Amino acid sequence: xxxKIADLNKTLYDLTAEYPELIDALFExxxxxxxxxxxxxxxxxxxxxxxxxxxxxxxxKQVAAALRAKGFTVKE
Length: 76
Hints:
Elements: E1 5-7, H1 12-18, H2 22-28, H3 37-42, H4 49-56, H5 60-69, E2 73-75
């Protein structure tokens, strides 16, 4: 099984294109717009997980821990 790497500096669009299962995971963490394909195509191409956490008031360390719990290696 190939290692799944969630690079928090990549755009949401790139991450969810590479790992579609991240759509549900990020939604559960508070990235509400990630389920909307139009939002992913527009804002998702501009926003990284790091910037999204800042905009949404989410704790980056908690988001990273949740992604690790889902089997991702997190690159910050």
